[in-house]
Write a structure and sequence with these properties.
There is one protein chain. This protein has about 325 residues and is α/β, with parallel strands linked by helices. It has 2 domains: about 5-65, GMP Synthetase, Chain A, domain 3, CATH 3.30.300; about 75-320, P-loop containing nucleotide triphosphate hydrolases (Rossmann fold, 3-Layer(aba) Sandwich), CATH 3.40.50. The chain has 11 helices and 15 strands. An 8-stranded mixed beta sheet has the order 8-9-5-10-4-11-12-15, with helices on both faces. The chain has a 3-stranded mixed beta sheet with strand order 1-2-3, with helices on one face. It has a two-stranded antiparallel ribbon with strand order 6-7. Helix 4 (about 90-100) crosses helix 11 and helix 6 (about 165-175) packs parallel to helix 7 (about 195-205). It is elongated and about 85 Å long. The protein starts with a helix and ends with a helix. The structure holds adenosine-5'-triphosphate. Adenosine-5'-triphosphate binds next to helix 4, strand 12 and helix 10. One of its GO terms (biological process) is iron-sulfur cluster assembly. GO terms for molecular function: 4 iron, 4 sulfur cluster binding; ATP binding; ATP hydrolysis activity; ATP-dependent FeS chaperone activity; metal ion binding. Binds and transfers iron-sulfur (Fe-S) clusters to target apoproteins. Can hydrolyze ATP.
Length: about 325
């Protein structure tokens, strides 16, 4: 009963998956490569080895281990804006929820370490993440999105005094956490296009980026800067989102455009970048966000706006995977 003759008993397709086969006192230990196989095919493979090797003369026991696939690292998508207050965190939270509703396994890192707002937006304020080994275990929101934020680790306002290296070390911990099983990790970047952002992009290498802007000219100039920042990464831009467009008066129903309208779509066209959608300025969106009820989790008009944006991001993910 030599090792080669035992392998020869196996069909070629099974033998090709044998990574190691050892015999000792009638006990045969086989390690198989199960990568790319679903659970039932793995079980069939294991059964076949057990039977065919077990039938050989002199074999008293067959021990089979099938190596699992190395878990794939999540695809990181950064959400950025050239300037603060344009709704980057609101978009990130709702995009995450909308992608989760589509069946994606979504994680979210609040990289806005100086002003973390994701615990409020996704209703996980006060939750403390546990650590397993050296790494943090993400917090589960009730919207199907796993998340980590500096807001989960320090008292509000405490991180404000941190300087560059400390801040980037803290962010590294949030990204290098137990994101097992997560397929797409949204990164809510801090506002701006300075060194902090550049270092983040170069260190964590997002696969793509979404830029959010309000439609007025000044914000658009900043959005252009964000596009330049991603180009430096280099991080491909998935597309631009226009936020705070078209305010519908809750009293008279008249639609006005406090920040203008359509500016982001034309800026996207001019830059040859996809336009992903337009989020209206609504009081209910702000109130729901402050109350930890992301509108994307509901079934109103705004939910369908976020669902449509998520659909485009999801198409991008599919194309990338193909
Ligand atoms: N479409 C909208 N309609 C109404 N309010 C909105 C809309 N988008 C965002 N807001 C509100 O504007 C404020 C700023 O939004 P948000 O925190 O998402 O912006 P940000 O770009 O992430 O800001 P920061 O620079 O602080 O990170 C929040 O109070 C939010 O609820």
């Amino acid at each position: 009963m030599d090792e080669k003759s035992l392998i020869d008993r196996l069909p070629d397709s099974v033998a090709a998956r044998v990574r190691s086969l050892k015999t000792r006192d009638g006990v045969v230990t086989v390690i198989l490569d199960g990568s790319g196989l679903d659970a039932s095919t793995r079980a069939d493979l294991e059964g076949a080895v057990r039977d065919l090797v077990g039938q050989a003369e002199g074999v008293s026991e067959v021990r089979v281990a099938v190596m699992a696939d190395k878990p794939a690292a999540p695809v990181i998508i950064a959400v950025g804006s050239g300037k603060g207050g344009v709704g980057k965190s609101t978009l990130t939270a709702n995009l995450a929820v909308a992608l989760a509703r589509m069946g994606r396994k979504v994680g979210l890192v609040d990289a806005d370490i100086y002003g973390p707002s994701q615990p409020t937006l996704l209703d996980t304020e006060g939750v403390r993440p546990e650590a397993r080994g050296e790494k943090l275990v993400p917090v589960q929101s009730r919207f199907g999105v796993s998340m980590l934020s500096m807001g989960h680790l320090v008292e509000p306002g405490k991180a404000l005094a941190w300087r560059g290296p400390m801040a980037s070390g803290a962010l590294g911990q949030l990204i290098d956490a137990h994101w097992d099983g997560i397929e797409v990790l949204l990164l809510d970047l801090p506002p701006g296009t300075g060194d902090v952002q550049i270092t983040m992009l170069q260190k964590h290498r997002p696969a793509g980026a979404v830029i959010v802007s309000t439609p007025q000219d000044l914000a658009l100039i900043d959005a252009q800067r964000a596009a330049e920042l991603f180009a430096k990464g280099p991080v491909p831009v998935i597309g631009l989102v226009e936020n705070m467009a078209g305010y519908t008066c809750p009293h008279c129903g008249e639609v006005s455009d406090p920040f203008g309208r359509g500016g982001v779509e034309s800026a996207a066209q001019a830059a040859g970048l996809p336009f992903l959608g337009r989020i209206p300025l609504t009081l209910s969106l702000r109130e729901a966000s402050d109350a930890g009820k992301p509108p994307a989790a509901g079934d109103g008009e705004v939910a369908s706006v976020f669902a449509a944006i998520a659909g485009k991001v999801s198409d991008w993910l599919d194309k990338r995977a193909a």
